[in-house]
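Still learning. Any example?
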Amino acid sequence: MAWPTIDRNKSAADKDAAPVLSDALKAKIRSFFDRYETKKGALLPALHISQETLGFLSWQAMEEIAEVLEITPSEVFEVVTFYTHYWTHPRGRKMILACRSITCDVLGAGEVLEAFKKHLGIDEHETTPDGRYSLATEECLAQCDHAPCVLINEKKHCRVRPEDVPALLADPNNDKLDIPRSDLYDGTR
C-alpha cells in the first residue's frame, strides 16, 4: 500500500468554488481590526463568527479568513485544529460539550458522557443523523463547584447525573440562555 502524497503548495480548497464568506461577514471580521495590534489578533473572533454563521469551518472558509486577515491559511488551520470548539465538518444545531476535568470526572462525568452517547447513538465529535446534536468533550468548563457540568450551545447545566440526560435532551429549551448573550462579537468599542 502506498501512502498518498500531499502537495503542500496546492490549496486544499476548490479555487473554482463560490466564496463562502459573505461581504457582510468579511466586513464584520474587519470591524475587529481596531481592537488588536495586528490583523492576526482578530483570528479567534473571526473564526467564532464564521463558524456561527456557516456551521463549521471548511477549507474554503479558512483560506478566505486568512485572506481577510492577511495571514497564511496554515496559520488559520493551526488555530482551528488546536482548539476543540472549532469544527472542520458539519455539526449539529445544538452542541453538547461535556466537561472532562478531574473534578467533573471524580463526580461522575464519565457516566454522564456515556449516557449522552447512549441516548444520542453517537460518539465524541459526531453528529446525530438528524443534525440536531453534536457531542464533544472539553478539558474544563470552569464550573468545578457545580460538577459534573455540561454546556448545550452556550447554556450550562450543573450537577448533571446520567439519569438526567433523557429529560435534558427532551427539553426543547435546553440551549436557551437565561441571561442576555454577551455582546463581545456585536458590541461596539
Summary: The beta strands are 94-99, 126-127, 133-138, 150-152, 155-157. The chain has two domains: 23-82, 94-170. The chain is about 35% helix and 10% strand.
